[in-house]
Amino acid sequence: MKPLPSTQLDSPWSNMIRDASEWFAGPLGQQLLAQEKRALGDELDRCFGSYLVHYGPFVDSLPESPMIKRSVRIGAALPGVEIICDEQAWPLGEHAADIVVLQHGLDFSHSPHALLREAARSVRPGGHLLIIGVNPWSAWGVRRAVSREAFRHARCIRASRVGDWLNLLGFALEKRRFGCYCPPLSSSRWQSRLARMEPVGQRIQVPAGGFYLLVARKLMVGLRPLRQDRRERMGKLIPMPVAKISRRDVEQ
């Protein structure tokens, strides 16, 4: 694929992605991605197919699964991205992928609706769309509100709202889970002390984890039933014999 023009690579969207990538490379971003990698691996082990497409504003290894033959990363010009493209124009055919993963793509997006439409269009009927986003109702959501780093640009869209968008795009939400219950602390010492919160939160699944993971399946395209005419056929009129009355009978 040909590289994007330099004007597009230096666009506000590309600059935001690069800033987000630097934040994910830091200690807090790595803490969040480490927990997401475990949850994502558990869900991908239940999926199967030939092609997986991953989109995310960070540099990390591609999610792998023995049930998937080929994985490819698309998005902004970051190390490891094989297909460079704009968030609103994926160079993929319709129904090209069995699985599409949007990992914080909606969080760092100038047009979340357009990005989600591109991802939904690329999933084959019966395939899966997995979305990971920052949970606004968590300590990470509070951190985003007071952050002075690139994390402050995260949209933190609610999981319920994303679920409504998926429903409109013809997807059925199969699962919603949360993770990363340890608060965003830069100190590794405090992270190790609070690490016991993670297994407890994972077991209870309180909707207060730092991230949410949505697993949605694209509904099959069915045939539209033929419209039937509900009007009943009317039978033919049959002449009935009518008695004749003479004028003489009436006068009497």
From TrEMBL:
Q: Name one Pfam family in it.
A: Methyltransf_11
Can you name one GO molecular function term for this protein?
Answer: methyltransferase activity
Which organism does this sequence originate in?
A: Stutzerimonas azotifigens
Q: What broad taxonomic lineage does this protein's source fall under?
A: Bacteria, Pseudomonadati, Pseudomonadota, Gammaproteobacteria, Pseudomonadales
What is the protein's name according to its record? Answer: Class I SAM-dependent methyltransferase
Q: Matching InterPro entries, A to Z?
A: Methyltransf_11 (IPR013216), SAM-dependent_MTases_sf (IPR029063)
What CDD domains has UniProt attached to this entry?
Answer: AdoMet_MTases
UniProt-listed GO biological process terms: methylation
Tell me the ranges covered by the Methyltransferase type domain, including all copies.
84-131
Keywords in alphabetical order: Methyltransferase, Transferase
